[in-house]
Structures are given as C-alpha cells and as structure tokens.
Specification:
Helix content is 45%, strand content 18%. The protein has helices at 13-22, 27-43, 79-94, 97-115, 165-180, 216-228, 231-241, 290-293, 311-364, 373-378, 403-418, 431-445, 455-464, 473-494; strands at 3-6, 9-12, 47-48, 56-59, 69-72, 121-124, 138-141, 148-154, 183-189, 195-196, 201-205, 251-257, 262-273, 277-289, 450-454, 500-504.
Length: 505
C-alpha cells in the first residue's frame, strides 16, 4: 500500500520518495530522511489504513527500484491491501513499469487539474472500497452520481502475442469492469500505433481490440453510412475498404503520447480479423491534447472530446468516396479504350501486311517459269502499296534491293512508332495507335514527294478514327506538327527519300 492516513490527510510514501530522488538524494539518504521525520509517527500508530482504518507500519525497502510501502501492523488484509497486491502483480507481468509510472504521474496531474474543480474524486484503482479481480489505474467518482469511471493506460499491449494470454487478460478485465458497473476509458501508448496513410488502413493486435470503445458518435457513423450507401456505391465501399461484413460497426481507439501529452483518436471499421490481429479501415482521426481529452462535458457524463460532432467529416468522407468511385470508373473506361486502340493498331498492321502479301501474289503471277525467282523479285518493289507511300505513286518508302533495305525500313517504322514526341501527353490512349492513324493519313494524302497537311482535316481524321484529346485542338496541333517534322527528317536522313512537308492550319 503506497498511501495511509496521517492526521486525517492522505500520506503517499511513494510520492514522497520520488520527490526526494529528484533532489538527487541516494537510497540511503532517502531512508534516513524518512526515519528521522516519520518513524516515530509509525511507532505511535499515527499511520492508519485509508480503507479499514487499522494502524499500518512504514516499510522502507533497501533495494533500488523497489517501492516504499505501508503494511497492516497485525498482518491482516483488507480490500486496499489485496487490490494493491493484485495490481502490482498485473503491472509486473503485463506492463512496462518505468513507462507506466511516468504516464500515470502525467494522468494524475491532468485529471486533478481538470476534474477536481467539478468536485470529482480521483483515486488510484487499488483504493476502491471492494476487492476487485482487475484493478484500474484510476477510479473517478462524482458527488452527484453513484457511477464510477475506470481509467487505464496500457504500455505493453503486445504481451503474450503468441499465446494470446494478454488478449484474454484484457477481455476478462473488460467483463469485470462491466460487471462492476464501471464506465471505462482506455488509453494505449502511442508506441503501439500501426497505421499506413497510403492505404488508409491500420493493424490492431488482438489485445487492442479489447480496449476499443463505441459511443454515440460511432453509432451516428453507422446510421449515416447505412442511409447514404446504396447499390453500386455500397459495393464500391466494400471493395475500397476491404470490409468483410455487410453491417456497419464503427468503433474508436485512443492512443496517447506521454512525452508531448498528445492523444490520437482513430474511428474505424474492422475489415479482417484473425487470432493475432485485426485490420481496420479509418473513417476519421484527430489529434488533441491530453488536457482536452480529459475535460468533462457540461453534464459530467462524458469526456468532452468523445462528443465532438463529426458531421462535416462524414460528409467529406462520402464526397471523397463518390469521387474515388468516379475516378475508378473513368480509369476503367480509359483502359478499355486503350485496349480498343491497341486492337485497332494491330488491325491496321494486319491490313498493311495483307496488302503486301496480295502484291507479292500479283507479281508472282507475272514471273515466267524459266526466270530465276530471286532475280525476278529484285526487279519489283513488293512494298509499293505501303501506307507510308501514296497508293498510286511509283515512289517507294523503302527499297527491296536487298535484305538490308528491308531491315532499314523496319527500323524506321519502329522509330516512328516509339520516338518520344514533345507534347504527346495531350493525346489520349496508345501512342502507337495515333501515330499509325497519322501515317495512314499521309499514305492517303501524299502526292509524289509532296505532303500537303491541313491540320484541321488531319485532326478531324484522327477523331473519326477513335483518337481523343485532353486539350483543345489549337494545343494538340503542336505534338502533331512535331511528329510530322520528325517523319520528314527520318525519311530524308535514313531512307534518303525526297519529301516536302507543307503544313497549314
């Protein structure tokens, strides 16, 4: 027991010891100070148990790290001594004591500052009038109410991860609090926060799932989603969140960073669960100071932060969900159009190959039987019908004199279809497709060595062929002009052909 009555005032021996440690006194010096100032009070029975009023003795342990404590003189037990022993057993087994001590000092300071002006009584959980199986860190009572609030700060939520022992411990603790009629408030040390902003999802250990809560604001989220999400939007929500249940069950969990006294509140739904952990999807999160988190509402029925309306947050969530759905549908439409364009590009090439094959067959019928095929074919240009040339022109896009010329033509073609063109992002879809359309237009409109380009007619031709733009025509003209100039350049330099390009609006 760390506290006893002395002259009708609570005397906390551990609080005194810690205060002296901060003054740089060593263990022996602290013990001497207590012996000199309080041993006679102990001998005279001036220290009494705050629960049963029996006399208690002051015990000053010599080992570093061990607390000073009070003990009944007759070695009897009361609810205070039993609760203290139970609490210390749980702390040593399940918590990081050094972190816990610092955190509880901060909690007590803020609770007393925020609640005492309202007449609230803040006590350590082991001071409770009854013997408990599970002891809260703090128990708060109010003069106008018979209800008790239980406050807990958890520092080692990952204990017993493999065996699940700590999760069962917290589950039984929660049931015990409910049976006792406590209103519970749980705070988890922020070192256990696991959340990915990119996916808007986080992970709770199975133990953490037993320290979540559900209040009226969570229920408002459930009703809002049920009312607003219908048909396709509901199924998109299931796909977006990964929710495994068709029912909404919004909850919240509170993380606290003791060093900067800051709370982070996550409101979420479960998306998947196994024996080790649970994945959740965040609806909202907010950061507030621990002082604000522990401020009472007007009716002394709740901490005020749990009643802050999230109506605007809900509307924003719904708006963003609808926009994401529209974006997804647009991306699907764009992918489908891209596939169509790629298929059209393949069909265009197939048509070109078929023309070449037909030309080969036509010329083959002209060869006399006694003439050597290789010598005969070298005298003819099988690619005179290529759409890189005018269909009635005698000019050739490539020479068929030898195999090297064939390879050179293929290389030029590949460069025309793959060369980066400045501004081509203004043109939607597959870049290979729109270039093939432009080349097809050149083939149909080239007269001898002259290519007379009407940009207006060319853009209309591209649109009718299924090419779409994401800018106005006067802007899209620039990447088209850049491509035409590149075409003119590569024909002249690589294939040594004379081409005159004339461009007009």
């Amino acid at each position: 027991m760390d506290s006893a009555f002395l002259h009708d005032t609570v005397f906390n021996i551990e609080k005194k010891r810690i205060k002296l440690e901060k003054q740089k006194l060593n263990r022996n010096e602290i013990k001497c100070w207590f012996e000199e100032n309080y041993r006679n009070f102990s001998k005279k029975g001036a220290f009494t148990c705050i629960r049963c009023n029996k006399t208690v003795n002051m015990n000053l342990t010599k080992d570093e790290g061990r607390p000073f404590y009070f003990r009944h003189n007759d070695d009897s037990e009361c609810s205070y001594s039993k609760n203290t022993r139970t609490y210390e057993k749980h702390i040593s087994k399940h918590e990081v004591k050094s972190k816990k001590d610092i955190g509880l000092t901060v909690f007590r300071e803020i609770l007393e500052g925020q609640l005492k002006p309202h007449g609230a009584k803040i006590e350590r959980g082991f001071h409770y009038k009854k013997e408990l199986s599970f002891i809260p860190d703090f128990i708060i009572s109010f003069p106008s109410s018979e209800n008790f609030w239980a406050i807990d700060y958890y520092t080692a939520i990952g204990q017993g991860l493999v065996s699940g022992s700590y999760a069962r411990h917290l589950q039984n603790r929660k049931k015990s609090y409910e049976k006792e009629g406590f209103k519970t408030f749980s705070f988890v040390d922020s070192s256990w926060l696991s959340f990915d902003e990119d996916t808007n999802k986080g992970t709770l250990l199975s133990a953490e799932t037993h320290v979540t809560n559900k209040n009226e604001e969570d229920a408002l989220w459930d009703r809002y989603l049920k009312e607003k999400l219908h048909a396709e939007l509901f199924f998109y929500f299931i796909k977006e969140t990964g929710a495994s249940s068709l029912e909404f069950n919004t909850q919240h969990i509170i993380y606290v960073n003791i060093s900067n006294r800051l709370c982070t509140i996550f409101r979420f739904i479960e998306t998947s669960y196994n024996s080790r952990n649970m994945t959740f999807y965040r609806f909202s999160s907010s950061k507030i100071s621990l002082e604000q988190a522990l401020t009472l509402d007007t009716f002394h029925e709740q901490f005020v932060f749990l009643n802050i309306s999230e109506e605007l947050t809900r509307k924003s969530f719904l708006h963003n969900l609808i926009e994401k759905k529209k974006q997804m549908e647009l991306e699907i439409q764009q992918k489908e159009e891209l596939l169509k364009q790629k298929q059209r590009a393949i069909e265009l090439e197939d048509v070109h190959i078929e023309k070449e094959m037909n030309e080969r067959a036509r010329i083959a019928t002209l060869r006399p039987i006694e003439v050597n095929p290789n010598r005969f074919y070298r005298k003819h240009d099988f690619y005179s019908s290529s759409y890189y040339n005018h269909k009635n022109s005698g000019s050739s896009f490539e020479s068929m004199n030898d195999q090297n010329e064939k390879q050179k033509k293929q290389l030029v073609k590949e460069r025309l279809l793959s060369q980066p063109i400045k501004g081509e992002l203004y043109i939607d879809g597959d870049k290979k497709y729109w270039r093939l359309i432009v080349l097809k237009w050149i083939n149909e409109n080239q007269a001898a060595n002259l290519i007379n380009v009407s940009l207006h007619q060319l853009l209309d031709y591209m649109k009718k062929s299924g090419v779409s733009f994401n800018q106005q025509d006067n802007i899209v003209q620039y990447p088209i002009i850049n491509f035409l100039k590149y075409y003119e350049k590569i024909i002249k330099t690589e294939l040594k052909k004379k081409v005159l390009l004339m461009i007009k609006d």
